[in-house]
Amino acid sequence: MNTALEFTSAEREAVNKVENYFKCKDMPLQEKLLHALLIAQHDLEAHNFTNNLEKVRILDFKNTVNDLLSKIRHRNVDL
Predict the structure, then answer these.
(1) How far apart are CA 10 and CA 77, in angstroms?
(2) What does pTM read for this prediction?
(3) N or C: which end of the chain has fewer CB within 10 A?
(4) Which residues, including other chains, have CB under 8 Å from residue 49's CB and lie 6 or more apart?
(5) How many angstroms separate the CA atoms of 79 and 5, rounded?
(6) Torsion of CA 36, 9, 57, 21, to 10 degrees
(7) Mean pLDDT per segment of 10 residues, for the chain of length 79 residues?
(8) How far apart, in whole angstroms, are the C-alpha atoms of residue 19 and residue 7?
């Protein structure tokens, strides 16, 4: 049984951003993604963006992180 997750290019890009932001080697990817999701949500709620394009980028990132978390959770349930 192959348990490796397959990521889209957007998901791979989000993972790279999260891994580069959270340098702690002891923090699992799922935890890093949860923190990234919280930061993105906070930025949206606090209107921490300068224009609509930046807001859309944050929304896209947040949606991608949500997709990644769903994949990870689904895989963990199936294992």
Answers:
(1) 24
(2) 0.86
(3) N
(4) 43, 55, 58
(5) 12
(6) 30
(7) 76 97 95 98 98 98 97 76
(8) 15
